[in-house]
Structure formats: C-alpha cells, structure tokens
Design goal:
By secondary structure, the protein is mostly beta strands. Helix content is 11%, strand content 33%. The protein has one domain: TolA/TonB C-terminal domain. It contains 2 helices and 7 strands; from the N terminus they run ββββαβββα. Strands 1, 3, 4, 6 and 7 form a 5-stranded mixed β-sheet that branches. The longest helix has 10 residues. The C terminus is likely disordered.
Length: 127
C-alpha cells in the first residue's frame, strides 16, 4: 500500500497576481498601442465641426487589454468624449512593465480633434 502522502494531490505554490494599477511614472516600459489609434470625428448633424480636446483615463491590464476608459475632461463640452472613448475601448496594447514583468497600468491620454482632420474622417491623436 502507498504511503498516505502520495495519495494527496500535488500543489504548486503560485505567485499572487499584482492587483495594483500602476501610474505610467512608475513603469519601466510604457504601454504602446499595437495599431494606430484614429478617433473618428463625430457627426455634427449639419453643424460646423469645431475642434476640441478630450482627456481620457485608460486602464490597461497585464495582457494589454483595455479594461476601462473614461473621459476626465472634455473641452469644449461637445460630443467628442464618446468618440474618444470608443477609439480606446477596443484598442489593444503591449502592456506596461515594471521590474521586468507585465503589470496593470493607468494612463491619461489627450485626444485632440481638429476640424481639418475631419475632412478625411480622422482626428489626430496626441499622447
């Protein structure tokens, strides 16, 4: 008969996942978009398009997936926030790194919409 110890399942000690969301200033390697991000200028229903800037808070997990996007500030208060959010919500990133490993990160991103760029149905994106 086998000793009682051999009947127990083997267990592996796992390193707990880092649950912190690191600010970009605390990262060694910043998250990078895997494809160009080009916000689409929203339809203004016959109104003249005006430029504006939206500041987004983007949370990116350790796999590079965007977990949350919210508009922190929109200037002017036009309907540019939803267009900026939609651009980042489905984006994929290489994750940020700290001490040689991929970690969760949070970053502020400035998205600038310019009427001239809207002619081609694109808006410029500056980080």
């Amino acid at each position: 008969m086998a000793p009682a110890e051999s009947l127990l399942p083997t267990a592996e000690l796992l390193v707990p996942a880092d649950a912190a969301w690191y600010e970009v200033k605390d990262l060694d390697v910043l998250p990078r978009a895997l494809t160009p991000l080009r916000p689409t200028y929203p339809s203004m229903d016959g109104k003249a398009q005006s430029g504006g800037t939206v500041i987004l808070l983007v949370l990116i997990d350790e796999t590079g997936q965007v977990r949350e996007v919210s508009a922190v500030k929109a200037d002017p208060e036009a309907d540019l926030g939803p267009a900026a959010i939609a651009t980042f919500a489905d984006a994929r990133f290489s994750p940020g790194q700290r001490d040689g490993r991929a970690v969760r990160s949070r970053m502020l991103v400035r998205v600038t919409f310019e009427p001239a760029a809207a002619q081609g149905d694109d808006a410029s994106n500056r980080q």
